[in-house]
Structure to design on (240 residues):
């Protein structure tokens, strides 16, 4: 199966089956509602905040990603805190208390060039700064993310600079009843990659070979340590 995402924002996109052209999943993440204040109240709060020496920190922002089918029926949802942290996950009738229950934290591997994160389905996501692949229990690649590609008859080609492409997710040998959960873990992994590898993608470019001796190289090492911290957080959730 080859899924085409209608938008570069995976949290607000439609996943289309390239073979049939059917929209299989709609993914949306509405902005949280904020209460509006009257001008007089707003002016008072503005004055109070500017006159106060210290102020209470605002609570973390929360968003919810909804996954529906082509007819709008709810299939799954993920609640996020501060954009990157999934605090609760629902897939059909099943609920998960954060990522620690949908990933197998005991077997996460943080290697110098890649990180492997198993799921409860016994698949493994392998992420690097340049790729995201899904592995089966024998480490065979059964899924891959293709970023900025075009497709012709379900065959993929890198997009040209003049005509930007779309993002595609190719999945092989995934049973239909596991597809939704694989999609949810895919959204979690793309969010994790965005958090951990934006430095490499945005700053380093082709200078990756020289980055280890530079301040930016040290910053990348800090990002790798942060990845290890994320793994420990998963382990703590599993123990709790």
């Amino acid at each position: 199966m080859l899924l085409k995402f209608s938008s570069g924002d995976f949290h607000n996109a439609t996943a289309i089956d390239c073979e049939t052209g059917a929209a299989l999943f709609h993914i949306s993440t509405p902005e949280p509602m904020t209460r509006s204040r009257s001008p007089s109240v707003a002016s008072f709060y503005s004055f109070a905040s500017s006159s106060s020496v210290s102020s209470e920190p605002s609570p973390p922002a929360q968003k919810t990603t909804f996954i529906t089918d082509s007819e709008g029926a709810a299939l799954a949802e993920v609640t996020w805190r501060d954009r990157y942290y999934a605090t609760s996950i629902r897939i059909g009738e099943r609920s998960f208390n954060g990522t620690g229950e949908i990933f197998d934290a005991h077997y996460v591997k943080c290697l110098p060039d890649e990180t492997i994160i198993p799921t409860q389905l016994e698949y493994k996501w392998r992420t690097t700064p340049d790729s995201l692949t899904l592995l089966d229990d024998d480490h065979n690649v059964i899924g891959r993310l293709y970023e900025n590609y075009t497709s012709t008859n379900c065959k993929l080609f890198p997009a040209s600079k003049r005509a930007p492409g779309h993002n595609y997710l190719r999945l092989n040998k995934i049973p239909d009843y596991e597809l939704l959960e694989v999609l949810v873990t895919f959204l979690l992994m793309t969010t994790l990659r965005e958090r951990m590898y934006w430095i490499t993608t945005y700053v380093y470019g082709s200078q990756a070979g020289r980055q280890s001796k530079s301040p930016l190289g040290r910053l990348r090492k800090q990002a790798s340590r942060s990845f290890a911290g994320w793994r420990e957080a998963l382990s703590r959730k599993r123990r709790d």
Summary: DSSP finds three helices and 14 strands in the chain. The domain at 2-31+58-196 is CATH 2.40.160 (Porin).
